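Bug #77: duplicate submission created two jobs. Keeping one. Sequence:
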Amino acid sequence: MSTILDGKATSNQIKEELSQEVTALKASGKRPPHLAAVLVGNDGASLTYVGSKVRSCEKIGYDSTLIRLEDTVTQDELLETIHTLNNDDTLDGFIVQLPLPKHIDEEVVLHAINPDKDVDGFHPTNFGKMALGMETFIPATPFGIMELLHRYKLDISGKHAVVIGRSHIVGRPMSILLSDKGNPGNATVTLTHSRTQNLAEITKTADIVVSALGVPNFVTADMIKQDAIIIDVGITRVPDENHPKGYVITGDVAYDEVKEKASFITPVPGGVGPMTIAMLLQNTMLAYKRNS
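Kept job's structure:
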């Protein structure tokens, strides 16, 4: 039976630490950190996620600003908003919530964000620094996973880690961080994706599996070895007419069967998700300290 890597409890611990820092800053006459979020359109998951970020800011004493734009906004109008935020000295960091409407080029938008305010860690400058092992803003989800491994004192040095999914937001940065020098780190990493052949043969050799595929219940017990560490990044709304909300949140991992075999496992929800928000707040504090 596996130990649950409790992202909710761990994220609350991080928020409490940040809250104490904010209290100390205010007591010394300084302003609190300030995070802004730009939300385009009315995507349900994005609304929930951004709402959670704003509430978390308020809870720990950060200033927060939510900028809502219609999904008919032009790319130039969105870039103008970003330009304004880049030049706002009262603002330490901001995020543009993804996905964006089809008529807007996400790459152009992300490149327009000042790297010093890019607390999502998506700008090429920050991604490059991360790849080189320099201090920078690490994308919040991979940062959260590394922090979870660190706080549970899981030693991955020399272990074989398999990452499923090669997105710039999770899979690719995850492969870099797991193999990086440091603790946790120094793992030998295999990065797999939709074109990988014999995927189950590869995952069966893994001491750590990080799945960021977005396919519900994809990773089954017969795909992992005994006592592997399982990190489930997947979060999919699966329709369920028996549920009050009309859907259930499901991860990439067939949790009930895999937890019997894994040594450590993240639940969905309550695993990686809360850690993502906590590390976004952590990145905002880092930006604040750089600006002070």
